[in-house]
């Protein structure tokens, strides 16, 4: 087994001047972040980079636990892109090894590890989607199995010897579970160790993550010191609340906007968030200058319709992941639906079995998950046929073609045959 060769940290005396460009980079680093630790060390690294022309190595690791990225992931990706645009080397790390352990951060139960097949399938899409935010030509992509697999049992034991159980139990979620008598599996202790070892392997200068990753990021800093490296700084970004404005954005909670969703859905979902949450999203997702957002907020406070601001946010998000033309079309589609109109681009569905009960039709057309849900929506007045509200749960539709609408956003052109 081999570890990365120890390096000698630069002498403290080798400090470099703090220029205006360094201060600008510091301001970019700090904007909307939750914590930047230690700030003094990061300022020194930025000054050294400016003086020597040597880019800093900035790392973000994501475990491919689901096949798609959502807007919540882009909060840290956006910060990576800002630092990338300053000329630093960003490293997008796919945690194909750590995914097999399962990150226990913020959990009160053991997370079930994924299979190698699930991880490989998810990892294929991660970098392609991250490239919608990062500049792929200037991004180093790595997989932590590169150095974690070769460690083997002997290497894992040696790595584990460099961190104490007492330090591990300082972690809030571990401490709370221990106090509550909730099981903690030994393999869960390996997760922060392996994430920290990633920083050693990559000789990271800065690691980014959500606020729930702070402990793991600090482990990386400690392990780098153990291996004789200059310790990385850490930058945590706030967790983005999802569409409900309460829970953090998560695919499992259904309160997310995927960055590969179609433009119309992306626009409409953004318009659905609360006026209060909108400003939080502006802070964490918008690339507009802070002064511009502040001016817009003042206009709304002075009486301007908050929907105008929300439309600007929705257009910016759709333009980023699709195009300006797609944002125009999505806004037009949204306004058409708001007026009760039928979108131009709706799926065509062919069904048989006329006359077919309304509940069965909605389920077979893929507009509802179950017949019982279909009948509940009919009761609530949430189903329309050719623009007319359906109130009869016993309705049977004859052969022919109709436009079916469920709620505000689900449409299908159904051709029903006998």
From TrEMBL:
Recorded catalytic activity of this chain's protein: tRNA(Tyr) + L-tyrosine + ATP = L-tyrosyl-tRNA(Tyr) + AMP + diphosphate + H(+)
GO cellular component entries: cytosol
Motif ('KMSKS' region): 248-252
InterPro entries: aa-tRNA-synth_I_CS, aa-tRNA-synth_Ic, Rossmann-like_a/b/a_fold, S4_RNA-bd, S4_RNA-bd_sf, Tyr-tRNA-ligase, Tyr-tRNA-ligase_bac-type, Tyr-tRNA-ligase_bac_2
Predominant place of localization: cytoplasm
Record note on quaternary structure: Homodimer.
Short motif ('HIGH' region): ranges: 64-73
Protein name as annotated: Tyrosine--tRNA ligase
PROSITE patterns on file: AA_TRNA_LIGASE_I, S4
Subcellular location, record wording: Cytoplasm
Originating species: Pseudaquabacterium pictum
EC number, UniProt record: 6.1.1.1
